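Study both lines:
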Amino acid sequence: MQQNNCQPLAPREDAWREELRKSMTAKERTAILRAVMSQLPPDYRVTNNEEVNCGLSAEQAVLEATRCLDCPDPQCVTGCPVNIDIPGFIKNIQRGDFAMAAAVLRQTSALPAVCGRVCPQEKQCESRCIYGKMKKQPVAIGYLERFAADEEMRVAAPVKPVPPDPDAVRIAVAGSGPAGLSFAGEMARRGYAVTVYEALHEIGGVLIYGIPEFRLPNSIVEAEIRKLEALGVKFIKDCIVGKTISYEDLRQMGFSGLFVASGAGLPRFMGIPGENLIGVMSSNEYLTRVNLMGAGREGYDTPVTRGRKAIIVGGGNTAMDSVRTARRMGAEKAVIVYRRSEAEMPARIEEVAHAKEEGVEFMTLHNPVEYLGDDKGHVRAVRLQRMELGEPDESGRRSPVPVPGDIVEVETDLVIVSVGVSPNPLIPHAIEGLEVGRRGTIEVDSETMESSVPDLFAGGDIVRGGATVILAMGDGRRAAAAMDSKLKSGNR
C-alpha cells in the first residue's frame, strides 16, 4: 500500500466510545457538527500522487455515526444504487463494532473501499438524508463507508481462498471495471465459477486507468480484487472478448452465461480545426498513459506531453482528474475550460474545490472553436468562444449559446479533451443478433440487464454510455440476480 503523510487510523478503547454508546436525544445528535476529513496540504500534494483525503479517525467516525437519527423510513437506502443497509452499517460504527459494519456493507457492495472514495454520495444517499429537511449537513455516509472498509483492510487476517468446485456452473465476464467486479463477486457468492477477461494488462478497468491514485490508490483496488480472488473468481489479462476470444468460443468452452462490462473507452472530440495537432489528446489517453502505463514515473519509458500551460476542456470528474494530474506532471498553469457556468458542472463539488486549492484556474462560459499550431505541428494556442446561458436543454441544464464576435485566444502547449466517451464498439459489433442502440450501447431489459442474445447480460458504461462507479455496480448486482434466477429455473 502506498506511503501517505496522513495520520493512520488508530481506534482506542477509551471512555469516549462508552459515553457515545449511551442514549442521546435527537436534539443532542443534531447538535453534533458533521465530521471534517483532514487532507494533505495543497502545496505538498501537487508534488506527488499520494491520496489527498486522509480518512476519519475512529473517534471522528463514532461521533459522526452518532448523528444518525434512526429514521423509521430511511430514504438514504433508496438513494443508493446498490441499496446498502446504510443505517445498519452506521449503527455498528456507533457501537464500535467496525468489523460488523464492514460485513453489513459487503452484503450488497463488492467494493466499499472504492465507493467510499469516488461515489457521488452528495447526489445519492446523502441527498436523501433527513438532515437536509432540517437545513443541516447530512450524515457523512461516504466518509463512514470508507472508514469501515479501511478498518476491515487494516485489521483483517488473510482471507482463506474458497476451494474450487469442479461441478460449478461456469460464467464469463468481459471487463474488470466496477460493473464486472460487482457482477463477479455476486455470482461467486452464489456458487458459480466465474472467469473475468480483461483486455488490458492490469485488472480494475477504469478504477485503475481512469482514476488517479491521489483520488483512489491502486492498492485499494488491488485489495478488493484479492478478496474476489479468494472467493474463487479467476482473472485473465490481455484477452479481448470479441477479438482474442469470441462469444461462440466461450460457449464451446462450457460457459453458461456472459456478462459484458467492457465500458466506454472510445473518446469523443468536438470536430473543430486543429484537433490533430501534437499536444491535443483525449482525457482517456492522457490518464491511461499516466495512471496505467507509468508516464513520468521512474523506471517507465511511456511518453506523455508535459505541458507548461495546460488547457483541459470539460467540467466532469474526468476533467478534474486530468487537470489535477497535469499540475502534478509539472504544468505551471492548468486551466479548466467549460462551456457552462460552474453551477452546471457535473463534477463533484469536492473535486472542484480540491482543483482550486491546487492552483487550477477556471474559464467557465467558454468553448474551444479552434486549436492553433506552430510550424512544427505542435499546439500553441486555443481560440475560445465566449458563451452565455440560454434556455434549459433536455437534461434540465441551461443550454450555452455563443456570444457573437466574442472570441479570445489563449496560449497553450497541452490540450486535454474531456467532453465524454462512447461505448467500446468491439463486442456490440462482434455478436450476431445483439441489439444495439443508436449510441452504440447494448440494449438490455432495465430490470434484469438481459440482452437480446440468450444468456448474455450487460451493464455499466456499455449500456449507459457513461455512468458512475456505483451505478455500474448496481447494474452488476441486478444482472447477477437475474442470471442466477434464469439459470436455476432452467429457462436458458
About this structure: DSSP finds 19 helices and 15 strands in the chain.
